[in-house]
Amino acid sequence: MKKAITLIELIFTIVIIAAVFTTIPKIIYVSNKSLEFSKKEDSIFNMMSKMMDISLKEYDENNTEYDDILLTGQNLYLDCNTSTGYRKGGFKGSRNCLNEINESDISDDGDTVYDDVDDYDGTEEKTTKNGRTEYTLKIKVGYTDEWGESDYSSQTLNYTFTNTTGTDKKNIKRINVSVKDSSGNIISSLSYYSANIGHIKINSVQW
């Protein structure tokens, strides 16, 4: 003989179903939050990795061929003195500009090998999933401010650089890597400064 469902069993069933339907939206919400956090974490990691990669490249395209401190042609305080072959404060055997090589322009030089920081200017790297863009790394390279003679004479060098990324040749370049979401909004940004210091060789080892 088949037994009928008692009222108490029916009540318990309704309570269980209600609990399930109350919990499921919370689980979905927490899961989505976790995925969003994971995506942001991944984007920041990739941003830092890209910046680390760029920071290891040469200061300028001409530094891939010459070890010199490059000339800007702007008569700046930090420019290398072509008469002595050295920057102010330099000495024989230190970094020099004996070849009198000028900095190259920050532009697409047609180089397919990313061997200097300028090559990354204006590049974008998109991360996609299931055909949809999750985030984009955008890279900008440009010249920023530098110190003048008065800064040295007063010994007040300021290491808080501006956000300038201009095209006028100077001795300091600003590399900025930003993360943009699928809507194009910047959600994170990181900057690095590269200096025109050339190279020095000690026992034939480049420093």
Description of the structure:
This protein is an alpha+beta fold. The protein has two helices and eight strands; from the N terminus they run H-E-E-E-E-H-E-E-E-E. It has helices at residues 7-55, 149-153; strands at residues 80-81, 86-87, 124-129, 132-143, 172-181, 186-195, 201-202, 205-206. Strands 3-4-5-6 form a four-stranded antiparallel beta sheet, covered by helices on one side. Strands 1-2 form a two-stranded antiparallel ribbon. The chain has a two-stranded antiparallel sheet with strand order 7-8. The chain is elongated and about 105 Å long. The relative contact order is 0.16.
Strand content: 15-25%
Largest sheet: 4 strands, antiparallel
Q: What is the strand tally?
A: 8
Query: Which shape, going by the Cα principal axes?
Result: elongated
- Rg on CA atoms, Å: 28 Å
N-end to C-end Cα span: 93 Å
Low-pLDDT stretches: none
- Tally of helical runs: 2
> How is the largest sheet built, in terms of strand order?
3-4-5-6
Structural category: alpha+beta
Q: Helicity, in percent?
A: 25-40%
Elements, N to C (H/E): HEEEEHEEEE
Give the mean pLDDT.
Answer: 81
